[in-house]
Amino acid sequence: MTDSDSSTSMHVPVLPSEVIEGLDLAPGKTIIDGTFGGGGHARLIVPRISPGGMLIGMDRDPHAIHQYGAQWRDALPGPEIAGTPLPQIELINDSYHRIPQVLQERGLDGVDGILLDLGLSSDQLNDPARGFSYQTSGDLDLRFDPTSGEAARDLLLRLPEKEIADLIYQFGEERCSRRIARRIVERRKERRAVTTADELATLVRSCVPRSKNHRIDPATRTFQALRIAVNHELRIVKQALEDLPGCLRPGGRLAVISFHSLEDRIVKYAFREADDLEILTRKPLLASDRENAENPRARSAKLRVAVKKGGSQD
Ligand SMILES: C[S@@+](CC[C@H](N)C(=O)[O-])C[C@H]1O[C@@H](n2cnc3c(N)ncnc32)[C@H](O)[C@@H]1O
C-alpha cells in the first residue's frame, strides 16, 4: 500500500478559469478529460455541463481512477443539492492516445471538448513509493502506470552508457549527460547500481555544477528525462495530437497544458499542422502572478487552445 491509498487528492488544478473558458463549457456538452489526475479540472467541468452532458475522465495511472476517482465521485454534489441532474460520468484507466477507440466503443461520433493536462500530479509527486520526488528514498520507478512497461531503475540497469547519456540529453536537455551516464555505469560495475530516487539525485548533483538559479535542483532535468523515457511521453502526445482533432465535433475545443519546452513545441506544431483546427491562442496562456504565488506548479504551465473548424463560430 502506498501513501496515496489513504489520502484524498492534494492536486490543485492549474489555469482553472482559462481551462473553463478555453473549453467553452455549456449544459449538455460531452467533454473528455484525458488526464484526470486528482479530478481537479473535472470537478470544475461537471457543474458547467449539467444538466445533461457527459464527462469521460481518463488516466493511465490506476490510482488516479480507482482511488482518487472513487473519492472524487463521492464528493460530487447529489442531484438534489446541485438542483439539476448531474452529467453522465465515466472514469477509465487508459491512455489518452486511445480516445479514438474509447469513442468508437461507445458509439460516439465526436465530443465537444478534450482537455490534456500533461505531466504528473501532486499526488504522484508526493507518493514516496513512486520515485517521482528526488527527496525520498523511494524506488526509482517513475511510471504513470506501475503495472506496465519498464521502471526507470531497470532502464538504468539495462541500457549501455551511450544510450543513457543520449536519453538524458535529448529528454532532459542536460549538458552534463555524459558525465551522469558514466557515473551510473561505474556504479553498476561496482555492484552499487542506482535503484532509489535519492541515490540518483545525489549522483546527479555530484556531476552537475550548481546553477546560479538555486531554486531549481540540478537533478530536475535528469528525472524529467527518465520520466519521459519510461512513459514514452513525447511519442504518445505527438500521436494523440494527430488523432484528436478527428474526435471533435465541429466547434469542439482542444485544450492542452504543457510543463516544459519539449512538450510545448510538440503542441504548438501539432496545432499548426492540423488543417481542421483553428488556433485560438496565438501565444500560450500563462498563469497570473497570483496563481503562481498560490500554486508553484503553475509557474511552468502553458495552455494552448484550438477549435475544430466547421462550427457556428466560423
Ligand atoms: C498534471 S496531472 C492532471 C491533473 C488534473 N488535471 C487535475 O486537475 O487533477 C497529469 C495526469 O496525467 C496522467 N497521464 C500521463 N500520461 C497519460 C496518458 N498518456 N494518458 C492518460 N493519462 C496520462 C498522469 O498519470 C497524471 O495523473
UniProtKB/TrEMBL annotation:
<keyword id="KW-0808">Transferase</keyword>
<keyword id="KW-0698">rRNA processing</keyword>
<feature type="binding site">
    <location>
        <position position="117"/>
    </location>
    <ligand>
        <name>S-adenosyl-L-methionine</name>
    </ligand>
</feature>
<feature type="binding site">
    <location>
        <position position="59"/>
    </location>
    <ligand>
        <name>S-adenosyl-L-methionine</name>
    </ligand>
</feature>
<dbReference type="GO" id="GO:0005737">
    <property type="term" value="C:cytoplasm"/>
</dbReference>
<feature type="compositionally biased region" description="Basic and acidic residues">
    <location>
        <begin position="288"/>
        <end position="297"/>
    </location>
</feature>
<comment type="function">
    <text>Specifically methylates the N4 position of cytidine in position 1402 (C1402) of 16S rRNA.</text>
</comment>
<dbReference type="InterPro" id="IPR029063">
    <property type="entry name" value="SAM-dependent_MTases_sf"/>
</dbReference>
<keyword id="KW-0489">Methyltransferase</keyword>
<keyword id="KW-0963">Cytoplasm</keyword>
<dbReference type="InterPro" id="IPR023397">
    <property type="entry name" value="SAM-dep_MeTrfase_MraW_recog"/>
</dbReference>
<feature type="binding site">
    <location>
        <begin position="39"/>
        <end position="41"/>
    </location>
    <ligand>
        <name>S-adenosyl-L-methionine</name>
    </ligand>
</feature>
<feature type="region of interest" description="Disordered">
    <location>
        <begin position="288"/>
        <end position="314"/>
    </location>
</feature>
<dbReference type="InterPro" id="IPR002903">
    <property type="entry name" value="RsmH"/>
</dbReference>
<feature type="binding site">
    <location>
        <position position="96"/>
    </location>
    <ligand>
        <name>S-adenosyl-L-methionine</name>
    </ligand>
</feature>
<dbReference type="GO" id="GO:0070475">
    <property type="term" value="P:rRNA base methylation"/>
</dbReference>
<keyword id="KW-0949">S-adenosyl-L-methionine</keyword>
<comment type="similarity">
    <text>Belongs to the methyltransferase superfamily. RsmH family.</text>
</comment>
<dbReference type="Pfam" id="PF01795">
    <property type="entry name" value="Methyltransf_5"/>
</dbReference>
<dbReference type="GO" id="GO:0071424">
    <property type="term" value="F:rRNA (cytosine-N4-)-methyltransferase activity"/>
</dbReference>
<protein>
    <recommendedName>
        <fullName>Ribosomal RNA small subunit methyltransferase H</fullName>
        <ecNumber>2.1.1.199</ecNumber>
    </recommendedName>
</protein>
<feature type="binding site">
    <location>
        <position position="124"/>
    </location>
    <ligand>
        <name>S-adenosyl-L-methionine</name>
    </ligand>
</feature>
